[in-house]
Structures are given as C-alpha cells and as structure tokens.
Amino acid sequence: MIEVMALAGVNASVMAPTLASIAKSRALAQLLASGPLAPPGPATGEGFVRPDLQGPWVTRVSQATGRRRACNHTKILCKTGLRVQPRRSLKNFALIGAAGYIAPRHMQAIHATGNRLLAATDPHDSVGALDRYFPDALFFTEIERFDRFVERARRANSADRIDFVSICSPNYLHDAHARLALRVHADVICEKPLTINPWNLDALQELEREYGHRIYTVLQLRLLASLSSLRKRLEADRKAACAAGTGSKADVVLSYVTRRGPWYDVSWKGDPARSGGVAMNIGIHFFDLLLWLFGACQRHELHFADRHRMAGMLELEHANVRWLLSLDKADLPAGYLDQGKPAYRSLTVDGQELEFTGFTELHTATYSDILRGGGFGIDDARPSVELVYQLRANEITTRPELTHPGLQALTARPSRTATTITPPASSADDGAT
After folding, report:
1. Which of 116, 209, 122, 218 is nearest to 162 (CA)?
2. DSSP bridge partners of 94
3. What is the CA radius of gyration of the chain?
C-alpha cells in the first residue's frame, strides 16, 4: 500500500493514521467474524469477553454505543464495543499490611506464581521478608503515599499499572483497603475475614459492579485435596442414603487449640471490635469449611465464651456440629508442648478422624486458582461471616447433651483473663468496623 502511495505522489506520513484505522478495522472484522462472544463473567464487569481469543488483545464489549473515545490511553471502539489493550504475561501486585504475620505467605505466593510485587505498605517497618522475595519492591509506611503511587501507575497506564492488591492488614480495615484497591482499578486478594460485620459485604459488592473488578478471599481449606475428596464422598453418600430413605445427619466434633502469648491481648487481635474475636480470628476458616461440607446453618447455640475461648453447637443441613476454639496453652493435650507442638486440630465425622494438615501452605494454590480464573469471592465468604457475627451476638445457653466433649474440662480451668466477650456492634453502626 505504501509503495502504491509513493508512486502516486501521496505523502505516506499524512496517510499513516488512515492506514492504522484500516488495519484496526480489518483486525476487528476478523475478530467479530471468528466466533461468538461469551456472556459476562464475574471478573469482567458489564461487558462481554471472547474466552477463546489469542494474541496481544484483550477484548470487552461495552454497552456504550455510537461514539469513539479514548480512556487511560486504551483505545475503545465504542461503536463496535471492542476495547483493545496490550496483554502482559506478568501480573503486578501491591501489598497492604506487609509487616504482619501472614504477609510473607502472600509474598511467597506472588513469587511462586511468577508475578511481581511492585509496592508494599505498613505503618510498621519490620518488613525484611521483602528482601527474600522482592528486594526491589517499593515500601511505604504511610498509606497515603502508597495510594499516590498506585494511582499514578494507573493513570500512566504503564507496564507498572497494578493488577492485584493483596490485603493482609488488621481485620477491621479489610473492607476499607479493598475499596482503595477497587478505586485504582485493581482486583483484590484479601486475607480472612473479608469483613467482620456482614453489612459491609453489601457495600463491597456494589463497588465490584461499579468498578468492574473482583474481590477474592483466602479460603484455602477448600483447596486441600483430602477435604475436596471428602466433600465429593459425602455428597455421594447423601445421595445414596436419600435414594434408600435412610438419610441422617452426621455427628461432627471440631476442636482447635492454638497457643497465643500475652502479646495477643495487647495487639489488635485481642480487641474484639477490631478483630471480631476468637471465632473470627482462628475460627472463620473452620466455620467456612463446615458450611462448605455440610450445608447451610439452620440453628446455632453458644455454650461458652471469653476473650480466649469459645464453644458451641451448630445444626447444619447435613450435620450436627459441636465445636471448641481456644488460644490458651493450658487447653492443649498433655505432652503437646513438650513435643514442640503449639497447636491441636481435630475434626471427626461420626467418630472418624479427618486429616487436614498442610492447610497453612495453601496460599500459592489460592493465588494460582485466582490467576487461572477461579477463586472465592464475596458470596463464598458471606455465610461464614454472617454465622460468626451471629455467634458473637448469641446469649450463652447450657445444653449438656449438645456440648463439646471438652467443654467441662475447659470451664474448670479459668483462662488467663476470663472476662466475658464484648458483643458486636449493632446494625446501627456506621460500618467502620
């Protein structure tokens, strides 16, 4: 084409924009002729995506029509609905809460999946773990400066634009930091719990729809192979029992004791208003697992609660569960500390012990699942968040026939600070926690 124009005496530089437009139109025609568009998925906002599309394009059909516009240096052909932008093989991450206990597992997951951590923030500066995985990552002790960095990267639409923000901050700040991430057009990977008050989940879902980005949470027990196999077996057994007319609810006993020292009471974790209490801090994963395995909660009771220990009963769709949680080392089985074991986990179904060790190493599997298009979102997290909130608000009842087998021994040993837990804020709360 350029040679023909030269022979005709036409200035090729003048016609370059026209040639580019023709090339885009041809590429668009080939794209639209090559197959149908899939309906919108949860990760794609309002538009439609070609799931089989290959090559250096990402496409989304917008509902806007009738004009051509540019947005953040990404060309959008609104008349046809095609948004074209370069595809990067690596994903850029930023991390909030880099000095916390759980943050190194997120750093390791980002590194193991072959992606980049560009920036991290925490008001505390004990973040030496960054050198192990991402020694070139920027670090901010002021979240305002972190926010400025990720916003500038978004507006520049450069190779440093943030794709995901990982959140490892204190529980009561999770939803606020998720909102920050959505505002810079990033997806979110948030540690448990997604929020400590269930009404904040509704606001986050509205923001997901508004910004067209997803909020994922870490529910790693669902990815443990032994528990996934158990779920399939339980479902098959229930179908067989239903067909035979012999179905009954399973008898489940959950025990989890993990040692925490005096530091716990001084930190934000020891403040129920900021952490959600024992059930939220150490119980949320297990309550999610129980609901995932045995169905929705139909009834629940709280039999004991102080700042370090809780016990109660759940009547689920397919199981009756007696559960006990403790942070007190005195509740560990005899000899555990002498063997160097600071935690005890037990889950029995009709007297049979289930093996679920190794769940602390599942963050990489969680990240891989999300990056492949899977992941667990707000609707997955909601049942356990609502259940824990209700348990915190429960009055304590005494039903000996329904109590955990270790409850009598637990109540006979006073906790190091056996004060009654603080009930959660009412729905009249402004939603800040």
Report:
1. 116
2. 119, 165
3. 26
Q: What's the mean pLDDT in 237-253?
A: 85
> 99-104 contacts: CB < 8 A, separation 24 or more?
99/123, 99/124, 99/125, 99/126, 99/127, 100/168, 100/169, 100/170, 102/168, 102/191, 103/127, 103/129, 103/168, 104/129, 104/132, 104/133
Strand order in the sheet with 164-167: 138-140, 116-121, 92-96, 164-167, 187-190, 215-217
Q: Which domains does the chain have, with CATH numbers?
A: 222-359+378-412 (3.30.360.10)
Q: Tell me if 150 sits within 8 A of 128, measured CB to CB.
A: no
Are residues 330 and 261 in contact, defined by beta-carbon separation less than 8 angstroms? no
Cis? peptide before 193, omega within 30° of 0: yes
Percent of all residues in the chain with a pLDDT value above 90, rounded to a whole number: 60
Residue 160, both tokens: 């440093």
- CA-CA distance, 272 to 424, in Å (whole number)? 8
CA distances from 335 to 83, 244, 257, 339, 406 (A): 63, 45, 14, 6, 17
CB 185 within 8 A of CB 154: yes
Decide the pairing of beta strands 74-77 and 69-71: antiparallel
pLDDT in tens, 342-368: 999 999 999 999 876 666 679 999 999
User: What count of residues does the chain have?
Assistant: 433
Nearest residue to 200 via CA among 181, 184, 179, 226: 179
- The closest alpha carbon to 43, from 288, 371, 417, belongs to 371
pTM: 0.76
Distance between CA 97 and CA 289 in Å, rounded? 26
**Cβ(238)–Cβ(318) below 8 Å:** yes
| Amino acid type, 221 | L
Scored b (16 or more CB within 10 A) or e, 293-319 reads bbbebeebbbbbbbbbbbbbbbebebb
- Determine which of 202-211, 357-366, 369-378 has the lowest per-residue pLDDT on average: 357-366
Q: Looking at this protein, which amino acid is placed at residue 296?
A: A
pLDDT of residue 127: 96
* Two structure tokens written together for 26: 């041809």
